[in-house]
Amino acid sequence: MGDSAKKTVRIGDTTLRDGEQTAGVVFSAKEKVAIARALDAMGVHELECGIPAMGAEERASIRALVNLGLNARLITWNRALIPDIEASLSCGVGAVDLSLSVSDIMIENKINKSRDWVKEQLKRSLGFAKDHGLYVCVGGEDASRADLGFLSELMGIAHGLGADRFRFCDTLGILDPFAMYEKVATLTAAVPGLEIEVHTHNDLGLATANALAGIRGGATYISTTVNGLGERAGNAALEEVVMALKVACGIDVGVDTRKLSAVSRLVGKASNRDVPAWKAVVGERVFSHESGLHTDGVLKNPANYEGFPPEAVGLTRYIVAGKHSGTNGIVESYRQIGIEVSRDEAQSLMATVRATAQRLKRPLGAEELANLYRRLLGSDTCRLSAA
Ligand SMILES: CC(=O)SCCNC(=O)CCNC(=O)[C@H](O)C(C)(C)COP(=O)(O)OP(=O)(O)OC[C@H]1O[C@@H](n2cnc3c(N)ncnc32)[C@H](O)[C@@H]1OP(=O)(O)O
Ligand SMILES: O=C(O)CCC(=O)C(=O)O
């Protein structure tokens, strides 16, 4: 990503707000504390931690987070309405996101207002928030479908009134990375003094790509959720964004990546949404190798088939014996269960290993491999190592 290695990129994680908006997901106050602590401990810069306007219970859970004294900045989500901001102030947070629908389709068909109303409401709510000493992110809901001239105008007003950043939302997840890049680059050039955050949804599976494109376009913040939770198909996943920035773009955001899989499990459990074994970056089996040529390559040097090592994200490498195994992989699978086999012996075992995997529709476990060895190659005492 060119000179982007020098760039400072910050993560604003919204697992506790947009993540919890996943239809059917509810975090208990205790789970919110555990998730916030985990994200803070790994170095996430900002946590969007709830919506005070929702009511007393939500406000109590936000106050509990404020009382933790985390390093991460806590920010709440608000409509750009004074009562919403007052509710946030009552929670003791020092930062608010003030959201306004900014596309004509939503201005006309959702909030039933006009562009002028949006501008006035921005001035009113931002002025109120700034008078109360708050850090303010102005949230542009549906910015990806909004008129760029109007967005520039809003950003100019926001900047003039002391907003700290603007959140460019691809609310419906309909952009491609090229369009995202161009839109963010245009806005960065139009209002250079105002930082931009990109909030990307995954309806087309492009949330992470779009977030990276936003950074290339000049954004400095990325909105993420653990496991990509969030409305409909979810948001850009924290683990994908952090690792993609690091591995593909050479940008280290200062998050301890070794904790990514643990936080993924924590949020998977709290959200009652299992993390698929093949989930990019944190899936339990994304460092499993079975295919003969891959296994051979990994055994010679893991870098042959791994873009980053499993330890980098707190995971483990597995070599498994299955339908696609080759000789070296089978030797290794037996070595792992304490049985030394030669290449010739592995070759003689291969057809049965494959046929068994084909029949069972899965790789063979330790016991099955040992039984096969005994059945095909001899006694159970032969060449068993200490393991
Ligand atoms: C894209 C996003 O993710 S935005 C975040 C969305 N999150 C949520 O909705 C979760 C929590 N929401 C809630 O608890 C409730 O919806 C509340 C407390 C925010 C509002 O509750 P209610 O007062 O009962 O309103 P309700 O949900 O029925 O409708 C929303 C109202 O807010 C208005 N509204 C929506 N967005 C905005 C905005 N950015 N600024 C001002 N008003 C807005 C709508 O026009 C509608 O007003 P209307 O009733 O006059 O037509
Ligand atoms: O307006 C905001 O700050 C965020 C709203 C949101 O979650 C979205 O547009 O997807």
UniProtKB/TrEMBL annotation:
GO terms for biological process: carboxylic acid metabolic process; nitrogen fixation. It catalyses: acetyl-CoA + 2-oxoglutarate + H2O = (2R)-homocitrate + CoA + H(+). Its EC number is 2.3.3.14. Signal peptide: none annotated. It comes from the Bacteria. InterPro entries: AIPM/Hcit_synth_CS, Aldolase_TIM, LeuA/HCS_post-cat, NifV/FrbC, PYR_CT. Keywords: Nitrogen fixation, Transferase. Residues 9-261 form the Pyruvate carboxyltransferase domain. The keyword Transferase applies. GO terms for molecular function: homocitrate synthase activity. SUPFAM superfamilies: Aldolase. CDD domains: DRE_TIM_NifV. Belongs to the alpha-IPM synthase/homocitrate synthase family. This protein is a Fe-Mo-cofactor biosynthetic component. This is Homocitrate synthase. The gene is nifV.
